[in-house]
Design goal:
Shape: globular
Helix content: 55-70%
Number of strands: 10
Distance between the termini: 56 Å
Strand content: 5-15%
Largest sheet: 4 strands, antiparallel
Length: 549
């Protein structure tokens, strides 16, 4: 077992050997080279060398490369294509090791727990491997077993990765620009979740509930009596892999209908349930003898929360309006970036991009080229997608690729169109408008209670004959609270009123000032506050669930 510092040395040497020594220098860990394996500052990296280095570095780095292969907002196409070749494979565990692990976790030997247990693995990967088994009632299941020691190994390499990212952010401008530390933290969170089979089981059950009324989608059952964080027992899915075209043809499967069904299931996950399978590659989808689609492997999932839904809705509305300015604002709101974004340059690039799709409906657009072009723009302007949106983009691109392989006439845009339309218009639904007005009213009511006190203080100072000095800093909290309402009219009214008042202080007497202040205190702000408070107190609770478009 090598030490932590020896592992640092291994990472550094492997990077240097593959022409990536400049990365070691950028992260400040080239001290471990000691003149070995080339010069740290040599920058002869290319996509193939990067892939080879990640493969040699082991499971965590392979999974990092696989994640990066989906991030067109971070890497150019030649790197994306090369990293997509990474395979997460590992030599199988000895059968005695597997049986001992099952016994330790579940308290009984496999032959006692199961009617049959196949020692030969169905698949073997870096985190665990899968074995076919049968319950005593005859149910076919798959037993997933986590490799011994893998958690410690993963945690050590993740710690090294995060340390390197933090060092690089301090010493390398490129790392800071692309928020390398944040990307690494997101990756670590995703990978640690994959280590916990209990979480995978919960994910599967959530999908099963979401598709409970969809007989064409089969989510396997979890058998909790023989499931722990290191051993997962899940119903066996049997069928034809969704990309085995000749087998599908021989079975009489309508490939056009199959592509449509798979895409609609993905759209439901994203736009209705807000919880989606983030790795729907062909190996995870099976066409069962009944014609239903069986889905497996629930370790990597994504969620579309309320804020992300709203941001996507704004972006879709901006696209519909063909408004580059609004698209620019929506993209900046969706993405993360360091420093000041070049809004003007982004707007220019967005306008050129929009001209390619002007006059076309979503159903007439190939999603992959559109997304690729948009991600290129984001990469050019050093904008990165948040983790959930990056997973969503990856999932949609995989679904379009699968659909096109099944049916040359497949259009993901046509499938997504009704869902996207509903998402774009969702913010104008009465319940959402009422919710916005409620929040507007509560904030305005709070503003309305604080504003008169400040204005009365101003009048009192005038009565005392005290000279008034108006400083912008004193108004910032008040104006910030007004702008938080989301209605610039209120903020503008307050600002205009104060500007006018300051001008009149030099020429008007106290009575004229009161005449100007009284309508402001008793009028607009109060009225908005009363209306909003009423809406907030009377708004009906939002119903759970969703309906199909």
């Amino acid at each position: 077992m090598i030490t932590h510092w020896e592992r640092y040395g291994q990472v550094t040497e492997i990077l240097a050997r593959h022409g990536l020594g400049f990365l070691a220098a950028a992260t400040g860990v080239d001290q471990w080279l000691n003149g070995r394996a080339g010069t740290a500052k040599t920058a002869t990296a290319n996509p193939e060398r990067l892939r080879q280095a990640l493969e040699e570095l082991g499971p965590v780095f392979i999974k990092l490369g696989q994640m990066l292969s989906t991030r067109s907002d971070l890497l150019p196409p030649e790197y994306i294509a090369e990293l997509a070749k990474l395979q997460d494979g590992a030599p199988p565990l000895a059968s005695d090791t597997v049986r001992a692990l099952v016994t330790q976790e579940l308290g009984k030997a496999p032959e006692e727990l199961f009617k049959t247990f196949d020692d030969a693995p169905l698949a073997s990967a870096s985190i665990g491997q899968a074995h076919e088994a049968t319950l005593h009632d005859g149910t076919a299941v798959v037993i997933k077993v986590r490799r011994p020691g893998v958690v410690a190994q993963v945690n050590e390499d993740l710690e090294i990765l995060q340390n390197l990212a933090t060092r690089a952010t301090r010493t390398w401008a490129g790392a800071a620009t692309y928020n390398l530390a944040g990307i690494t933290a997101d990756f670590a969170e995703t990978l640690r979740a994959e280590l916990d089979y209990l979480q995978e089981g919960r994910n599967a059950e959530r999908f099963a509930r979401n598709f409970d009324s969809e007989p064409d989608i089969h989510i396997p059952a979890i058998f909790w009596e023989t499931t722990t964080s290191r051993v997962l027992t899940i119903e066996r899915i049997r069928g034809i892999k969704v990309d085995q075209l000749q087998a599908l043809k021989a079975a009489g499967i309508d490939r056009h209908e199959l592509a449509d069904r798979a895409a609609r299931a993905a759209a439901k996950m994203v736009f209705v349930d807000g919880f989606f399978h983030a790795d729907p590659h062909p190996g995870n989808l099976f066409v069962e003898p009944s014609g239903s689609i069986g889905l497996i492997d629930f370790g990597m999932v994504g969620e579309v929360g309320k804020q992300l839904r709203e941001q996507l809705g704004r972006l879709l509305l901006a696209f519909t309006a063909n408004d580059p300015g609004r698209i620019t604002s929506a993209l900046l709101a969706l993405s993360t970036h360091t420093g000041t974004a070049d809004r003007s340059g982004l707007r220019t690039d967005t306008a050129q991009f929009m001209r390619l799709y002007q006059g076309k409906s979503l159903g007439q657009i190939d999603i992959a080229p559109l997304v690729t072009s948009m991600l290129t723009i984001l990469r050019t302007h050093h904008l990165q997608l948040p983790r959930e949106l990056a997973l969503l983009v990856k999932m949609l691109l995989m679904m379009e690729g699968l659909g096109a392989r099944l049916d040359p006439d497949f259009s993901l845009g046509e499938v997504l169109k009704p869902y996207a339309k509903r998402l774009a218009l969702e913010r104008f639904a009465p319940r959402n408008v009422a919710a916005v007005l409620s929040q507007l009213g509560l904030t305005a009511a709070d503003l309305g209670t604080g504003l008169p006190e400040k204005l009365e203080r101003l009048v009192a100072r005038m009565e005392d004959g005290v000279e008034v000095h108006l400083r912008a800093a004193e108004l910032e909290p008040l104006i910030s609270r007004a702008e938080a309402i989301g209605n610039r009219l209120v903020a503008g009214m307050i600002a205009a009123a104060f500007i006018r008042g300051v001008g009149e202080l030099t020429t008007a007497d106290r009575d004229r000032l009161k005449i100007w202040l009284n309508p402001l205190m008793a009028g607009g702000v109060g009225a908005v506050g009363v209306l909003g408070t009423y809406l907030a107190l009377t708004a009906r609770p939002r119903r759970r669930g969703g309906t199909k478009p």
